[in-house]
Each structure stands twice: as C-alpha cells, then as structure tokens.
Amino acid sequence: MLTAALDLIAEEGVAGVSRRKTAACAGVPLRSMTYHFTGIDEMLPEAFWGYADHVVAVFDRHLAGTATPEEAREAVTDLIHTLSGGPRRDLILVQELYTPAARSEPYRALCARWMRRSRALLESHFPPESARQVDALIEGLTLHRALDDDPPERPVTREAVGRITGA
Question: Which PROSITE patterns does the annotation name (predicted)?
Fold first, then answer.
C-alpha cells in the first residue's frame, strides 16, 4: 500500500493522493486502507519514511567498504551521479516531500530524521561539519544534475566533494 501511495505521489503529487486512489492502485479493498491507516495524514508520512529508508540504504551501499577519505570522496561522487541519473520518480518524491516539510512540522521532523541518518553515514568518513555540507551538496548537485540540460561531469562533482572534505 505504501509503495502504491509513493507511485501516486510521483504521478499526481501529494495533493492528488487519497486512500481511495491508493487502495485502487494497490489492488486492495478500501476497507483494508481504513484498517491500516486512520487517514491520509497517517499514511503519507509512513510512505515517505519508507522512501527515506530506501535512500539511506543507497547512501549506505555507496559508502560501505570505503576505508580512506579518498575512497569516501569517490563514493560520494558516485552517489551523486547515481541519484541524479536514477528514476525520475525518485527526484519527484524528494521534491514532493520538501513541499509539505516547508509547511508542516511532522514532515519537517521526518526530513530532519532523514538528514540525521544520512549525515551519520557520512560522519563515519568525514568530520561532522563536513558531513553536513556534503549532505547538502549531494541534495543540491543531484537536483542540478537531474534538471540541467548540460549537467556537470564527474570531475566537477569530484572537485566539489574534495573542496568540502579538505582534499
């Protein structure tokens, strides 16, 4: 059901999602949605949290096994290029989460928890302030690379990561 909710968010935006549409997309009876979620305000954060888990797992896969700062920098470069070249759905989902986060404390808290998790992974390779900056760089460069008609190539990404991490 949560995957169906994310699919709908990617297709129609948060405003276009309802329990009825989600149930139809998931191929389950509407009463099943009512059993699991009291309302859309309970379902959407759960769906976004599942998406955050997915992105954190992508971070973890890229950073796992890196032993040196240089390997970590290269892993971050790979991560940015992987995320920016990934499914359009993922780019849309991130942006759809940011909109309610700008207006609603529960979504802002969800984003803050997500950022703490990604930064914790980065902090195993970089000092805390650098990890915070790298996390922001990942978000920004991913978005810019995904939307730019002439996105920066790997050497530019690698240089930006190196500048932040003191290479």
Answer: HTH_TETR_2 (PS50977)
